[in-house]
Amino acid sequence: MEKIIPDTSVLINGALLRLIEAGEVRDCELIIPLAAVDELQAQASKGRDIGLRGLEEIKRIREISGEKGIRIRFSGERPSLDDIRLARSGRIDALIRDVARAEGGVLYTSDYVQALVAEAEGIPVRYIEPYQRPEEPAYKRYLRPDVVNLYLRDGVKPYAEVLRNGRLETVMLDDKPCSEELLNEVLEEVMAVARVKEDTDIIMLRPEAVVLEMDDYRIRILKPPLSDRMEAVIQRNVLQLVPEGDVVEPIIQECSSGRYGVLVLNLDGVYSFPIAERVAEKLWEIGLDTRIIGRARRINASAPYYSPLDGDLEKTLHLILLSPPDYIIVDEVFESRDLKLMKDARLAGVGVIAFKQSRSIETAIISLMEVMSLPLLSQVIDTIILMKCSGASEIFHVSASVRTPSGLSPESGIKHVIELIRAGETVYEIYEVDGRPIISNIRKLRTY
């Protein structure tokens, strides 16, 4: 006789009862974990509807079990007070999986993360859609035409960064705080779409963190214990909101004019892959062999894309360099080792475009100097582009000299000086004093 172990999700949403009433589940042994019952009781005692619904479902299942040939029993450890208090951290789910493992049955769940963990642990699992998916995902009710980044967090009013008059502004979208139920609905809808859409790119898929890209959106969902409460961030492809030429053309012009090391600073923290992808397409159109490397698992990019080999992008880069292209695009530089990829490619004679999130040119320069010396910096980077959400870009060309920096006395001696030049005028000088990097704004010096 088949053994079925339900978790709290299929009891709360009625999915198991629907299967029983439809005759899809019959002539089996239904083993209800005591951990699930006690968790539902704890929620009901707090006056939460999900606890009451779950207990009512168990009562209804017991009432109709006889006519469906279903034998019911309870099994497993009862959770401690600490277990119940830490239920959101996955403690109750772990106890339920322990019952499924010990009984040798099939875990029934509508929680995709629970199903994912069970599969990873080798536990037979059946994932049941919690409800019929609506035509429009839950999060899209907040996606006004001007929204660039949408933020949903349990217990917090939904808010967004919107594009107004060429700059980002933060606005509240609703007076009612987001609920955990809404966030779970968003998660389930996202994962349901990911299972059926072949062009979904998976960046991260873990029990406590899901990052996907689909339909011109990047969606990041975090759960306890990684975050203190459930949250979701939905980022829109900014090319839907601003003219493509304003964002892409400055990069193309620099590459086509012989600037082979281009660092694009993403000042507003927008979803940058669609921009990187479009840059690659445009470079191919003018005859430049261009490859993109990044940490996502992409299956439908419009330009050649390469993910980490054995979890290491450096290995991927070395493999590509066996047959060097004209340009390599590093999609989203977050760590110092990602900047090292830019250095390695440039020293191999390959052009590089790197997209890096940074709030200022100063912090970006500091991170660059963590992986390369000041003299080397000018050999690796020809151009720094400050990319803003509005599409307006500032372009700085990099030049090097050996002299006394502006603002220092001749007694300070000559130093290796990097100049960042905008529209023919030096705006920044970068040098070192006693091994410490100095980034001097020359325009401010001239006003004193």
Q: What labels would you give this structure?
A:
30% strand, Beta-Lactamase, 448 residues, 22 strands, 3 domains, 7-stranded antiparallel sheet, single chain, Rossmann fold
Number of helices: 15
Helix proportion range: 25-40%
- Average pLDDT rating: 86
Major sheet details: 10 strands, mixed
Question: How many runs of DSSP E, i.e. beta strands?
Answer: 22
Q: Using the CA coordinates, give the radius of gyration.
A: 28 Å
Oligomeric composition of the shown chains? single chain
Q: What's the SSE blueprint?
A:
Layout: E1 2-6, H1 8-12, H2 15-21, E2 28-33, H3 34-45, H4 49-65, E3 70-75, H5 81-85, H6 91-103, E4 106-109, H7 112-120, E5 125-127, E6 147-153, E7 156-164, E8 167-172, H8 180-196, E9 201-206, E10 209-214, E11 217-222, E12 231-236, H9 244-256, E13 261-266, H10 273-285, E14 290-293, E15 305-306, H11 313-320, E16 327-333, H12 336-347, E17 351-357, H13 361-368, H14 374-380, E18 383-387, E19 393-403, E20 415-422, E21 425-433, E22 436-441, H15 442-446
Parallel strand pairs: 1-2, 1-4, 2-3, 4-5, 13-17, 13-18, 14-15, 14-16, 16-17
Antiparallel strand pairs: 6-7, 6-12, 7-8, 9-10, 10-11, 11-12, 18-19, 19-20, 20-21, 21-22
Helix pairs in contact: 3-4, 3-6, 9-10
Written description of the protein model:
The chain is α/β, with parallel strands linked by helices and 448 residues long. The chain folds into 3 domains: 2-127, Rossmann fold (3-Layer(aba) Sandwich), CATH 3.40.50; 138-236, Beta-Lactamase (2-Layer Sandwich); 239-446, P-loop containing nucleotide triphosphate hydrolases (Rossmann fold), CATH 3.40.50.300. 34% of the residues lie in helices and 30% in strands. The protein contains 15 helices and 22 strands. Strands 15-14-16-17-13-18-19-20-21-22 form a 10-stranded mixed sheet, with helices on both faces. The chain has a 7-stranded antiparallel sheet with strand order 8-7-6-12-11-10-9, covered by helices on one side. It is elongated. The model has no long low-confidence stretch (mean pLDDT 86).
